[in-house]
Amino acid sequence: MPIRLENLTVAYRRHPVVHHVSGSFVPGELTAIVGPNGAGKSSLLKSLVGLLPASDGRIDLAGLRPRDIGYLPQQSSLDRSFPLTVGDVVTLGHWHSSGWFRGVSREARLAAERKLDVVGLAGFAPRNVDELSMGQFQRVLFARLLVQDARVILLDEPFTSLDAKTTDDLLAVVQNWRREQRTVIAVLHDMEQVRRHFPQTLLMARECIGWGDTAAVLTPANLLRANGMTPTWTGHAPICDIDGPDAVATVSSPIAGRP
Ligand SMILES: Nc1ncnc2c1ncn2[C@@H]1O[C@H](COP(=O)(O)OP(=O)(O)OP(=O)(O)O)[C@@H](O)[C@H]1O
């Protein structure tokens, strides 16, 4: 069953940043969400995980539970000053089975170490996260997603600022998720990368410009249209007169409150 957006509008103080978007994410496939800065891409991901309510329309999560959705926010929104080891961060991927406040089993620790190995960080478990480079930390967060073992994985600009080797290694993890028929939805800016690795694309600039096979969506005309919408949507988007009042949540908040 696909995750479906039904006339979804997400707004900040009634200014819509995702505006009447409808469509389905192909299950078991890689979908890129692309569009210019401020197009509402991150807001859409937050809405999918229940961190932002819909102000109109709804999201049908097709019966998915919180544990079925893995979410990797943008690096800039993560605080690394907390005194945690790499092993602590990766074992947090077990939160749905261990609970937040129960101890972590030896098996969970070993599983975390195996996933660190997969992302090229064997032996990193005892290191403090604030000692890592940005690329190493992104590998740690991918290891945490591997531990979570979710059916649906949402990635917000997962390769931004990473070097070619780290990007290739993490793209290989994503390709493996595709082979395992997991649904991956990733906000991306590199069109070449999208064309090469992501069969499905949602192109948006507040509204949906195109959604479907990547080659059919990323046409020069569509890209021109998306970029041309830039001045009309940022914080000055007109208040939507079709929408109801803000904060009328029509999607359950599956992982709201997760740290
Ligand atoms: N907490 C907030 N309060 C008010 N406005 C916000 C908030 N978060 C985002 N916005 C605005 O919503 C719009 C969409 O932001 P969003 O981060 O979803 O865009 P994006 O497509 O992910 O952009 P980028 O490619 O730059 O990351 C922007 O105009 C942004 O300023």
Question: Which features does this protein show?
Answer:
about 260 residues; Rossmann fold; 6-stranded mixed beta sheet; alpha/beta; binds adenosine-5'-triphosphate; about 35% helix
Examine the coordinates and then state which fold CATH places here, giving the name of the CATH topology of the largest domain.
Answer: Rossmann fold
Question: Kindly state the mean pLDDT as a whole number?
Answer: 87
User: In the CATH hierarchy, what is the architecture of the largest domain at level 2?
Assistant: 3-Layer(aba) Sandwich
| Bound ligands | adenosine-5'-triphosphate
Could you say which structural class the secondary elements and strand pairing correspond to? alpha/beta
Provide the succession of SSEs: EEEHEEHHHHEHEHEEHHH
Taken from the alpha-carbon principal axes, the silhouette is globular
Tell me about this structure.
- It is built from ten helices and nine strands.
- With 259 residues, it is an alpha/beta fold.
- Helix 4 (106-118) packs across helix 5.
- Residues 12, 17, 35, 37-43, 234-235 line the site of adenosine-5'-triphosphate.
- Adenosine-5'-triphosphate binds at residues 12, 17, 35, 37-43, 234-235.
- It comes from Pigmentiphaga aceris.
- Residues 3-231 form the ABC transporter domain.
